[in-house]
Amino acid sequence: MFFWLSILIFIGTYILIMTEKIHRTVAVILGSTLVMAIGVISQEEAIKSVDFNTIWLLIGMMIIVG
């Protein structure tokens, strides 16, 4: 059941991003909060799944480009 619910949340978030009804950052935060609220993934698991090396690489590239 959680699988289909998470797929629906993903599709809904994607539609919000495509239609630009709300800002994409708000859409992503809303979708991720909803996934954690219904119990698909815990907050600890969500934090563990973030690849901070990639985040730092992107931040470095944005600083160089800027």
Can you characterise this structure?
This protein is an all-alpha fold. It has 4 helices and no strands. The radius of gyration is 14 Å and the shape is flat. The model has no long low-confidence stretch (mean pLDDT 94).
Quick description:
This protein has 66 residues and is mainly α. The chain contains four helices and no strands.
Defining key terms:
0% strand, mainly alpha, flat, 66 residues
Gross morphology is: flat
E-strand count: 0
Q: Give the integer mean of the pLDDT values.
A: 94
Q: Flag low-confidence runs.
A: none
How are helices and strands ordered from N to C? HHHH
Structural class: mainly alpha
Distance between the termini: 44 Å
The biggest beta sheet, please? none
> Approximately what portion of the residues adopt beta-strand conformation?
under 5%
- Rg: 14 Å
Give the number of helices.
4
Give the % helix: over 70%
Secondary structure layout:
Layout (H helix, E strand, L loop, with lengths): L1 H18 L4 H15 L4 H6 L3 H14 L1
